[in-house]
Amino acid sequence: MSRPVVQPDPISFTGVDGITLRADEWQPADGEVGPTIVLLHGGGQTRHSWKQTGQFLAAAGTHVVSLDTRGHGASDWSPSGRYSLELFTDDVVAVVEQIGTPVTLVGASMGGLSSIGAAAELGSEKARGLVLVDVVPRFDQAGSARIRDFMTANVGGFDTLEDAADAIAAYLPHRPKTFHPEGLKRNLRAGEDGRWYWHWDPAFVTSKPGDDRFVRAEHLEEQLASLTVPILLIRGKLSDVVPEDAVAGFREVVPAAEVIELADAAHTAAADDNDAFTQVVLDFIGAHR
Fold first, then answer.
1. Burial 77-90 (b: 16+ CB within 10 A, else e)
2. How far apart are CA 266 and CA 241, in angstroms?
3. For a disulfide at 48, which of 14, 173, 186, 237, Cβ 3.0-4.6 Å?
4. What is the mean pLDDT of residues 41-54?
5. Is the pLDDT reported for residue 238 higher than 80?
């Protein structure tokens, strides 16, 4: 899929508690005013997870904002050390209000869960569509625990960038191992002790969620069922977080939602096949403009 390369501009928003949230913004390559897409990454990731996706979407004529969630990337850490789904959701609502135009929310994993609540609160005039990337309210707990184990195992950092690449390769065995130091530096920060740390607040994984996951899932399903906007679930066929029975449960809650499976993708699907993922999003937006 050959497209012109579109470079983003760094921008900032104000989140809950007055914290600063950093983002990348891509304007449509053709200069036209296209639909706005807000990209929300998963837990432990940064906005750079969406770099190729943002470039491709902007080259196809959309306005794209990719946000660093609080405690992640270049955004401020929570002053209270708390990281709840409610706070993430309220931040998304604040960002959309500041963008000032209707948006389609595209959220991976944690970003998808926060976008469900944000879409419900914003209403159909401000949130025109919802794309969930390999996440549903009742996701597989074993798959989720595997992610959390990976994150907590490396809170103490790495001696070298190559050690970090080895850890990522072990966690994602379905992907060919790569070692791109400059790319890794977008997701890691150099500590004063010379070690490399993930670019997120350790409190994000060391603090307790403080809620009942079953109550949370029921609330998210109620919010999903209340939405009147188009909804798309993109699932990676190799995902251990959204198995087929979880998709079946999702369909029962929102029977009108579209579900598309990417054959060679795992959790999260966007990072495995950007071309296929981007085309699916563009088709979805084009069909509901």
1. bbeeebbbbebbbb
2. 9
3. 186
4. 90
5. no
Alpha helix segments (H runs only) across 47-206 = 51-59, 85-99, 110-122, 141-153, 161-171, 181-184, 203-206
Give the number of other CB atoms < 10 A from CB of residue 208.
6
Q: What SS3 class is residue 208?
A: coil
Of 66-75, 77-86, 230-239, where does mean pLDDT reach its minimum? 230-239
Which residue, among 172, 114, 108, has the nearest Cα to 135 in the 3D structure?
108
Dist CA 121 CA 126 (whole Å): 9
Classify 63 as helix, strand or coil. Answer: strand
Q: Which two tokens stand for residue 191?
A: 């500590």
Per-chain mean pLDDT for the chain: 88
Please give the pLDDT value at position 262.
Answer: 85
The contacts of residue 133 (CB under 8 Å, 6+ apart) are 106, 107, 108, 109, 111, 112, 234, 268, 269, 270, 277
Q: How far apart are CA 182 and CA 178, in angstroms?
A: 12
Give the whole-angstrom CA distance, residue 47 versus residue 243: 26
Give Cα 61 distance to the centre of its chain: 21
Which residue is associated with the tokens 């950093």?
A: 22
Check residue 272 and give its pLDDT: 44
How many C-beta atoms surround the C-beta of residue 226 within 10 A?
12
Q: Report the 10 Å Cβ neighbour count for 49.
A: 23
Helices assigned H by DSSP within the chain: 51-59, 85-99, 110-122, 141-153, 161-171, 181-184, 203-206, 213-226, 244-253, 274-287
Query: Is the CB of residue 151 less than 8 Å from the CB of residue 164?
Result: no
